[in-house]
Amino acid sequence: MGMCHNSSLLCLKEGWISLEFPYSRFGDEEGHENFHREFVCSLAKSERYRLNAFAVALLGLLVFPMKRGKIHTSLSYVVCMMARGGKTIVPMILAEIIRALTKCTKGKRYLEGCNFLLQLWADEHFYQRANMVDNIRRSMGIKNINHHSRMKYFVSPIGTKDWFMYLRECSATKIQWKYYWLKPRCVIIRGNELYFIKLIGLNGVQPYAPLRVLRQFRQI
């Protein structure tokens, strides 16, 4: 983003930066002047990178979080590809959430995935809807817009202890395995040779088995 390599920053060798780093250089109006030795571009050109720096900070803190507010430096390449247009990071988000949940099942206490999407996923599963005929779902509009109105009837646990108690007492009859969002038709997703799809995540390739996931939603 128009900056030279800073060998004095040990965190760069470990693949992360703090939020203060991009903010002090791109968020502050005098950032280029205060850190001019770190830039290899003019002030006018550095202005073009301000939006990229904001996107890196946003993704690093909310979508691909690390412990203690660290921001993954590889996100700079992701943002550059997105800026060119025609790219989506949805498969990458899915890959990192799967990776993060797998680590949590092995005892890790921190989710390195998008907490907002995980919260939405949980609320949609635990929300008990009334029995409805599948063929009237098309009239319900865009499902993520209706999410807020549905959640008015779901009393969500607050805090870690409440969630632990809620999940311990939760039974299969209290979980909605089929989303509002999935249309009532057969869905078949598979690769040419393997029963899983290789998703390229921020930390490498993550296998994703859609057939296994779709069975939870009573789909083929």
From TrEMBL:
InterPro entries: AminoTfrase-like_pln_mobile. It comes from the Eukaryota. Residues 37-217 form the Aminotransferase-like plant mobile domain. It holds the Pfam family PMD. This is Aminotransferase-like plant mobile domain-containing protein. It comes from Solanum pinnatisectum.
